[in-house]
Amino acid sequence: MSVLVLVGPPASGKSTVGQALAARLGVPFIDVDAAIEASTGMTIGEIFVDLGEPEFRRLEREATLELVQRDAVVSLGGGAVMSPEIRAALAGHLVCWLQVSVVHATRRVGMNAMRPLLLGDVRANLQKLLTEREPFYREVADITIDTTNLKADEVVADLARRLGADATGQEQDKA
CATH number, domain at 67? Predict the structure, then answer.
């Protein structure tokens, strides 16, 4: 079972925080989008264009359901929580929702063409995604951290503390 599952919108820091937290805890890091790209040989953008969003969501659902079972820090794609099947599967896992304001997410994303759902008016599209997904992030989250004004290492330190790991990544004695 996963050590921690990270959910949140694009540019909330899931990949950056996830990699650093996994390294600190001495466990693997799994990015579901990266796993999908590796298994298909296509980028997420190519999957959206060539195969369509429904096929991407199918691939995402299958990959997520498998990968959250691994002993790792797992970063989900921003829209994964829209799937009732994925939300149900997360019930047995520790889930952290990384929040970010639309203004900061827009700055972080810039005009990143690798995020197909944000093409065009990035800020408006981010706002729409956040509005649609926020109830689902809230539903699955055990921990919520607003990353807007935090550096990644601050988020990692907070999560490590909450997970009971000291500065070296070793679990603290609970005695």
Answer: 3.40.50.300
Mean pLDDT by 10 residues, the chain (175 residues): 87 92 96 96 89 93 96 94 96 93 62 47 75 94 92 94 64 37
Q: Are 40 and 108 in contact (CB under 8 A)?
A: no
What contacts 32, CB < 8 A, 6 or more positions away? 60, 63, 64, 67, 74, 75, 76, 77, 80
> Is 175 within a domain?
no
pTM of the predicted protein model = 0.85
Q: Does residue 97 fall inside a structural domain? A: yes
56 touches 50 (CB < 8 A): no
Total structural domains within the chain: 1
CA distances from 81 to 34, 45, 95, 112 (A): 17, 19, 11, 22
Domain that holds residue 110: 4-162
Position 105 in a domain: yes
